């Protein structure tokens, strides 16, 4: 599978959200009193920032025919 032939850009939102969720749950287990209920808004920020970065990037030019 070639990623270069795909005109859509690969987004980093999914991996960043999974890593952040894992870190929040890890801290929830390690630090008493710092629960998931207090840190879930950070997930909204982590979802929004990569989306803004994806939108701000210029679109990739279309590729020509392969020979």
Can I get a quick summary?
The protein is built from 3 helices and no strands. It is an all-alpha fold and 67 residues long.
Q: What order do the helices and strands come in, and which of them pair?
A:
Elements: H1 13-30, H2 36-39, H3 41-56
Helix pairs in contact: 1-3
Notes on the structure:
The chain has 67 residues and is an all-alpha fold. It contains three helices and no strands. It is 57% helix and 0% strand. Helix 1 (13-30) runs antiparallel to helix 3 (41-56).
Number of helices: 3
Structural class: mainly alpha
Alpha-carbon Rg, integer: 18 Å
The global form is: elongated
Largest sheet: none
Residues in helix, %: 55-70%
Terminal CA distance: 18 Å
Q: What percentage of amino acids are in beta strands?
A: under 5%
N-to-C SSE string, H for helix and E for strand: HHH
Mean pLDDT: 75
What is the total tally of β strands? Answer: 0
> In terms of per-residue confidence, which ranges show pLDDT below 50 for 5 or more consecutive residues?
1-7
């Amino acid at each position: 599978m070639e990623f270069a032939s795909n005109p859509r850009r690969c987004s980093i939102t999914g991996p960043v959200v999974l890593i952040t969720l894992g870190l929040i749950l890890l801290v929830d287990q390690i630090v008493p009193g710092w629960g998931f209920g207090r840190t879930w808004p950070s997930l909204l920020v982590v979802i929004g920032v990569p989306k803004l970065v994806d939108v701000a990037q210029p679109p990739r030019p279309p590729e020509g025919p392969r020979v």
